[in-house]
Specification:
With 323 residues, the chain is an alpha+beta fold. It contains nine helices and 13 strands. The radius of gyration is 20 Å and the shape is elongated.
């Protein structure tokens, strides 16, 4: 690509995501992108929500924006691009603790493969969620266990990966309680005491692929409303756990699933929400909307085959802890 115009890339790196390996790979990533014909400007985040500020303030100068971090870093990057109102393709190098969205889109969690997938891949239009005045990538949820992603100790997550979430879940098990909610979904109404509720656009949440084979599409303008009624007996709890593990929750009597564009949640008292693993505030009433084809994420082409002898990553550790 010596005679071609070099495309300008903004590489946003969260150095504390996952096992904090991003800085170790950073120069190799920059060199590989440079070889592929990109003029790379790399920025490391310094504080919470820094990726959003970097993209919002500088993103319009670039042809492509690549973020390196966890799902929260991707959310911030998306929010920054949405704030700009520009159609800029997004590359994702997943280095978080669970990487739910990356798994759903079949984005490699191996660093070398993820870099090559961006270089050789193609932008795919995906839907984005709007939660009140905020945006999110793949899940807005309330209820039991939803705070695990931001309450679990970061040092423990760095060591144990997604197992840290399971340990946190065990700690919270004896504090489970029902949450009364009224829900309107595309004109259909629900009311009950719920163990968990969410609007999602992903096969998995918290590393559990509970919506696999449930008709999830990332570009159809609809998200999946999931409402799980509070179990009343140990047998109901055991059946729910079994169905989650075996990816058969659609047949469980406690579970309601709808594919919808617009959802309104109403509560008697302020309810904490989680947006893509980050705290989303407390709300007594909030509307959630699916924005069709609002962003473009670069994914690997199905026919693409990686070259195992790439010299730039030779000798580097191959695997990153999955989120």
């Amino acid at each position: 690509m010596a005679d071609a115009v070099r495309r300008k890339m903004l590489l946003v790196v969260n150095p504390v995501s996952g096992k904090k390996l991003a800085k170790q790979y950073m120069m190799r990533m920059v060199n590989r992108f440079d070889q592929a014909g990109y003029s790379v400007t790399a920025c490391c985040t310094q504080i919470d929500k820094n990726a959003y500020e970097i993209v919002k303030n500088r993103g319009k100068e670039f042809d492509i924006i690549v973020c390196c971090g966890g799902d929260g870093t991707l959310k911030e990057t998306i929010c920054g691009i949405m704030q700009l109102g520009l159609d800029i393709p997004i590359g994702y190098l997943p280095m978080g603790s669970t990487n739910d969205f990356a798994h759903s889109l079949n984005i490699p969690t191996d660093v070398y493969k993820a870099v090559e997938a961006i270089i050789n891949g193609e932008p795919k239009p995906v839907d984005i969620g709007r939660f009140g005045d905020e945006y999110y990538m793949y899940v807005a949820g309330f209820g039991n266990f939803t705070a695990i992603s931001y309450s679990a100790n970061q040092k423990v997550k760095n060591v144990l990966g997604k197992n840290a979430y399971y340990l946190q879940a065990v700690k919270e098990f004896f504090h489970m309680k029902p949450f009364h909610a009224r829900v309107e979904a595309d004109g259909e109404f629900f009311e009950g005491d719920y163990f968990y509720g969410a609007v999602s656009n992903s096969y998995s949440v918290g590393g559990m692929p509970v919506l696999h084979n449930m008709g999830v599409e990332f570009d159809d303008g609809r998200s999946e409303l999931v409402l799980v009624e509070m179990f009343k007996t140990p047998a109901q709890m055991a059946a729910l756990a079994h169905d989650m593990i075996h990816q058969s929750v659609a047949g469980n009597k406690l579970v309601t699933i709808r594919h919808c564009k617009h959802v309104k949640f109403m509560f008697d008292e302020p309810m904490p929400f989680t947006l893509d693993g980050e705290f989303g505030g407390e709300h007594t009433e909030v509307e959630v909307e699916t924005l069709e084809h609002a962003a473009r994420i670069i994914i690997q082409k199905p026919e693409w085959v990686s070259l195992e002898d790439e010299p730039d990553f030779e000798g580097a550790p191959k695997e990153v802890e999955e989120k």
